[in-house]
TrEMBL record:
Protein's name in the database: MBL fold metallo-hydrolase
Sequence similarity: Belongs to the metallo-beta-lactamase superfamily.
UniProt xrefs under InterPro entries: MBL_superfamily_lactonases, Metallo-B-lactamas, RibonucZ/Hydroxyglut_hydro
Keywords annotated in UniProt: Hydrolase, Metal-binding, Signal, Zinc
Domain of life of the native organism: Bacteria
Gene3D superfamilies, sorted: Ribonuclease Z/Hydroxyacylglutathione hydrolase-like
GO molecular function: hydrolase activity; metal ion binding
Source species: Caldithrix abyssi
Signal sequence bounds: 1-27
Classification via Pfam families: Lactamase_B
Keyword RNA-binding: no
Length: 303
């Protein structure tokens, strides 16, 4: 089993020399989009974008093909309750980046900020107010907005809590977790199979919102199923894959990206195969990787 921590210094230096230039900032269209149901609703809230090459997102990808990266959050409403799945880049991300991102890694992570989740909530009174935050995993580009919500509890499984508190920059930014120190809520999965995942948590007891333990990308990486009935089902797998084509082709990330980003590459491959099989069994299931702007755009077009 291969375990890799996110962006080790020596591998990043090698990658920078090999790849030259990484993400380039890019302007973006509005991608905030609701998907409405009687019991559950979700909104996609982009907070930043960047440009890279397909080659860096999938094994066998083309250098000539541009690939748009999205950084954002999913706001989920169930009845009178609401929560955030990730926070994207928050109000203080520039300060966090300056404080915690090592100089040798900064060229890899250029981004163009859009509105933070907090600003989007302030600007739109029709959006539900979240009562808690679930993290797909603890990497900096998913937890950047935690400090914008100091009063909200942050829900993570034990594996990810331990990872966050033992890993450091550039994967995890300590400055992002200051406000979360007294707000952690460690939750536990039940040994109930959901869509082929052996550990799951049915948040509301009605099957509409289900968390599953995926692992791989980080020890406690989590996927979010939203099941709206009538064939309208969605899966947010976090960073298990960066590019939806990885599922279709059963491909991992570009080899250097795997080396840098995935904690357990064998587990990642296993889950990719699982998602591929699941997509065949449930062709209507829409799988939306956290950084694949095309997948976000598809949801918006359809809703």
């Amino acid at each position: 089993m291969i375990h890799r921590s996110f962006f080790r210094p020596h591998t990043v230096l090698t990658a920078l020399l090999f790849l030259g230039v990484a993400s380039l900032a890019a302007a973006a269209p509005d991608r905030s989009s609701p998907a409405v149901s009687d019991s559950v609703t979700f909104f996609l809230l982009p907070t930043a974008e960047g440009q890279t090459r397909e080659m860096y997102t999938i094994s066998g990808g083309a250098f000539s093909t541009p690939f748009t990266l999205i950084y954002g959050a999913v706001l989920v409403r169930h009845g009178h309750d609401a929560f955030l799945f990730d926070t994207g880049l928050g109000e203080q991300v520039d300060k966090q980046f300056e404080q915690d991102m090592p100089w040798w890694a900064r060229p890899f992570f250029e981004y163009e900020k859009q509105q933070s989740v907090r600003k989007q909530l302030e600007a739109d009174s029709t959006l539900p107010r979240p009562t808690r935050i679930f993290l797909s995993h603890g990497h900096w580009d998913h937890a950047g907005g935690l400090v914008d919500f100091p009063d909200l509890p942050v829900w993570v499984p034990q594996q990810e809590y331990d990872f966050i508190h033992t890993e450091g920059p550039p994967a995890v930014f300590p400055s992002q977790f200051v406000s979360a120190d007294s707000q952690w809520h460690i939750y536990h999965f039940e040994k109930k199979n959901h869509a082929g995942f052996k550990q799951s948590l049915d948040l509301y007891g009605d099957g509409s919102v289900v968390l599953v333990l995926m692992g791989g990308h980080t020890p406690g990486s989590v996927g979010l199923f939203i099941n709206r009935g009538h064939g309208r089902n969605y899966l947010f797998p976090g960073d298990l894959v960066w590019n939806h084509d990885q599922i279709d082709r059963q491909k991992g990330k570009f080899w250097l990206s795997r080396l840098l980003a995935d904690y357990d590459s064998e587990r990642v491959d296993e889950v990719i195969r699982k998602l591929h099989d699941l997509q065949i069994k449930q062709p209507a299931l829409q799988i939306i990787p956290a950084h694949d702007a095309r997948s976000w755009d598809r949801i918006i077009r359809e809703h």
